[in-house]
DNA sequence: GTCCTTTCCG
């Protein structure tokens, strides 16, 4: 547009002859001659800057005093939110007639702010100008667009006072306003009160239902309008198609498509775009693409519908391909385009592509769009770049609730639970009220910290916010309680739920599994099979790992077989890994190896990893070496697997091989993640590393540990020094005795009252000697000790562990 | 001159 304005000199043929300085003004044009080029240019203006560019031309030709020009300029300035300039023009008009007031009001209502429109409306009433119907329709539209229910009601009241309550136009606007302000029942009430309803009124109520999540009602109203003797038009179609998508009824969507074809408007851009959207939301992405490809005319909404359709369907590659095609065709992306592209980058965890979209966004004029920036936060978080996300969050000029939620979720997903919780507190300090998304984002952070007291604290928040009926919140609570050691609380929440998602069942089954209650996991899985919700691929991972942790080999085998047979689910690499774990852990190393050889897909790292772990438990050097060599081919730089292999050698006292692996690690610069154990005490989480002496209570802790070790030795504890070499026997013992698990337990014993449960968390797998020692400690102290490690829970009580020493 | 399609955080 700006470039179209560059030659602001009118064409010579129409330009008035140049006048020497001091010559008298050109004669005023009669008002019907407003087709002067400058008037046309004004009509083309899309920004205030463009109007200002043309204004000198208007003045130069003495047209500024023309009534038509004044009206036009007023309309433009008020539309572009330039109230000062609008007031200037307005004041310069000598004889202000009603029409002038109406034009200005329209401008304000259509383009600039609702406040400006309302203020002007008040001025207009003060000037005793009689309002007309479309004053109200414009004002109501502005109220609806701003979701301003209070002013909407006010204007509705004034409309009634002025006697327009039987006017179809006015009442349609009222219906629309209430629907946009999410007062769909009130909208319906007004609709029912209308003395007569034209198609536009019907369309308004249909769209209202569709936009308020009442898809069935929207569909019902389409039937009613036909009973009323009217015929749905293209707008009806466009309004009701999102409702079909909402219901997920392809059949219904197709019948509307067919109607559109019969009625001859199926190929309109808006209808086709809505069809693309409907088909992709009804999981018929191929049909969506077919409709899209057949479109003769497409607008950016058509592209957005298709791109987002792919992104939502999980076909991120196709989404990005189409996004690039859109850019290639020179179409200007909108906020929705960018959001869909970012969504696809997040899904693929494609940071480089994500950065390119970010770059594009900076030059697109959408750089301060809150929704787009929220998507950017999500994209960086999913690509494991939470610091980049946090930078976006910090520099946003305005934030919405979604921004806070996205950032909290980003921290929670990236193992930064403390940052997630701090942000959750901060938003409340700023009086921003959390919603169900916030709670669902914070809960995994609490689960990560694994402190039951905090779990109850966040649950309390959910209750106070009245969000404890939300199925997503409840599912997150089930998962969290299980991960915080409160398995019975998880089940309690689970049992109160009237509706459950597949993820709800998965969380509970996995909870039983990680707590070593394999039989309960299988039982719940059977219950699920006869429930309305059917298992998915994740369900099988949960139940198979539950079987594995409890040694339920036959059950696991049977369940694995049902996967494909009963549910047509193709086992993934992780499922095969679970099966190898199940067989191998139970001692069937040969069977596990044969299972790997018979796999229909090329076995990957998770499969050999499970094999290696089983070899460690059952001290099988030969198969362990074979599994390890496969792993090092696939992933040469993982420290954890090197340590596992070296431990297998150590258990077999093959010290030269231990040294060889350690050497290899050193050469590759690999390190074993340092083991550490967390324990919470009075709102603070204490972290212990092996051998650390810089804790304030170190002296007391080591003294307590000495005392305890003596006690447990007296009842039969023998330190397992097998895996240590090259040092004297007493040093070996000393090394074992300073493991982080033991330090944390000693700390717990000192600082908690006798008889209370001690709960700790280890970042890696719990060590064999510590596991054994903890059993004895539970016996001699009469304490219950709950240990969460990387994989599962161990409940120690009266000298026994819930895992049955099988982990 | 009133009605409509694509949207971020589980």
UniProtKB/TrEMBL annotation:
Main location: plastid
Key word Repeat present: yes
Sequence ranges of the PPR repeats: 167-197, 198-232, 299-333, 369-399, 400-434, 470-500, 501-535
Stretch forming the signal peptide: none
Keyword set, alphabetical order: Chloroplast, Plastid, Repeat, Transit peptide
DYW domain mapped to chain residues: 716-807
InterPro entries named among the record's database cross-references: DYW_dom, E_motif, PPR_At4g14850-like_plant, PPR_rpt, TPR-like_helical_dom_sf
GO biological process: RNA modification
GO molecular function: RNA binding; zinc ion binding
Pfam families per UniProt: DYW_deaminase, E_motif, PPR, PPR_2
Gene3D superfamilies: Tetratricopeptide repeat domain
Ranges of Pro residues composition bias in the record: 8-19
Keyword Ribosomal protein: no
Subcellular locations according to the entry: Plastid, Chloroplast
Segments for region (Disordered): 1-27
Gene Ontology cellular-component terms listed: chloroplast
PANTHER family associated with the record: DYW DOMAIN-CONTAINING PROTEIN, OS07G0578800 PROTEIN-RELATED
Cross-referenced NCBIfam families: PPR
Name listed for the protein in its UniProt record: DYW domain-containing protein
